[in-house]
Amino acid sequence: MESKNRNQVIGEINQLLTTGGFKTSQVYYQSCFDMVARKKLLLILLKVLVNIDSVNESHVQEIRKVANTFLASPIIVGVKSKTTKLEEDVVYERHGLPAIGIDTLKNMILYDEYPEILADRGGYYINIDGNILKEYREEYSLSLKDLADLAHVSRETIYKYENGIVRANSETAMLLEDILNMKITIDIDLFEVPKDLNESQQIIDNDDKTKDLANLGFGVIKTKNTPFDALAKLDNNSSQNNDNLSKVKSYDESPLIASLEKNRTSKTLQKIAISLKDLSLITESDPFFIINNEKIKHSLDGIPVIKSWELKETEDSTEFLKIIKERKS
Questions:
Q1: Pick the residue with more confidence: 45 or 237?
Q2: For residues 178 and 265, which has the higher predicted lDDT (pLDDT)?
Q3: Could you tell me which residues come within 8 angstroms of residue 220 by beta carbon, excluding any fewer than 6 positions away?
Q4: Is 245:236 a contact under the CB 8 Å cutoff?
Q5: HSE, side-chain direction, 13 A CA sphere, residue 149
Q6: Distance in angstroms (rounded) separating the CA atoms of residues 228 and 234
Q7: 3-state per-residue secondary structure call for 225-275
Q8: 127: helix, strand or coil
Q9: Among 25-29, 93-97, 156-160, 210-214, whose mean pLDDT is lowest?
Q10: Which residues contact 206 (CB under 8 A, 6 or more apart)?
Q11: What is the C-alpha to C-alpha distance for residues 236 and 252, in angstroms, rounded to an integer?
C-alpha cells in the first residue's frame, strides 16, 4: 500500500472536490473538522485521516454538533484501518460517523456512484429493497421457499429481507441479484443529511453572551476545537420570534458564526476574522464578533463587531440581525 501522509491526503481530496465543482474552505488543521465544501445546496463537513481508527471521539461529537447546525453531511475520509487499506465502495463507521476511502469519495463526486456495502462486525452487509425483491420474486412465480433455496438461505431470511428487518451479507445480495437479474440493493447516500442530525440542540452555560443571545430568541451551540466559539440559529419555536419571523425570513435557516470575547490579541483576532470570512462564504452564514475592545469599532476586516453592552440593550432578534447587516462591509 502506497504510504501517504495526512497533508497529501488532504491535498488530494481538495483537488478532487474542486474538480467536482465544489467550493472548498481553507484547511483547519487544529479543528475537529478539516474542511467544509459546498456545491449548490449540498454542504459536506470533512474529517481527513490516514488511519480512520485514530479519530477522536470528542471531535466526532463536535463535528456532529456543527453538522447539525449547518444541516451538513459529516464524513470521515481516510486511507486505511489499522494496516488494511479501506476498500472501494465500502462504508465504515467510527463513533457513529461514516468513514470512506478516497476512491469511494471520488466515485460519489465525479461519477455520482454511491456505495452499497457497509462494513460492520462480522463482515460486509447490504440493505435490500424489500419491495423490489418481492415484486420480482412474484413476477418469476417464486415462493419464499423457492427463492430461499436458490439463494441458500432460509425462508424466514427472505421474508425479513422483503420487510426490511435485516440486512443481507454481500454474497447473498449479489446472488439474489443474479437470480432475479435485477438490482435490488439500496445505495448509501452519504450526502443525505442524517436524520438524527435534524433534531435541535441548544447548549447554554453561564456565559452572559450566550445567555443574551438566547434571550433574543437564538438557539446557541458552544463549540470546542473549531475556528469559531459558537453557532447561533433563530429558534422558530421561541415566543420571542413568533412575531418577527416574517421580517427575518432570509435568516431563519442560516446559522450565525460567532467569535466571543476571550481577551485575544489583535493578531489572533485578525486570524480569526480570516477564518470566519472563509467559512461564512462556504456555509452561506453570517459571522460576527462579540468584543469589548474599545479600539475595535463596528467591524474587524469586514466582520461585524458587537459589544457586550449592545447585546444586552438589543430588544429582539430582528434588531440584532439588522445591526449585523449594517456592519457587514
A1: 45
A2: 178
A3: 202, 203, 204, 210, 213, 214, 230, 231, 232
A4: yes
A5: 5
A6: 18
A7: CCCCCEEEEECCCCCCCCCCCCCCHHHCCCCEEEEECCCCCHHHHHHHHHH
A8: coil
A9: 210-214
A10: none
A11: 8
Checking if the pLDDT of 1 tops 50, the result is no
**What is the rounded distance in angstroms from the CA atom of residue 94 to the CA atom of residue 240?**
39
Which helix (H) or strand (E) segment holds residue 10: the answer is helix 6-19
Nearest to 283 by CA among 302, 317, 255, 303: 255
Report how far residue 63's alpha carbon sits from residue 185's, in angstroms, rounded to the nearest whole number. 29
H/E stretch holding 304 reads: strand 303-306
pTM confidence score? 0.90
Closest CA to 258 of 287, 278, 280: 287
How far separated are the first and last CA of the chain, in Å rounded? 50
Residue 107 DSSP SS3? helix
Kindly report which listed range (197-201, 254-258, 318-322) carries the lowest average pLDDT score: 197-201
pLDDT recorded at residue 243: 55
What's CA 10's distance to the chain center, in Å?
17
The arithmetic mean of pLDDT across residues 307-326, rounded, is 93
Per-residue pLDDT tens over the stretch 36-46: 999 999 999 99
Q: 146 — phi, psi (to 5°)?
A: -60, -50
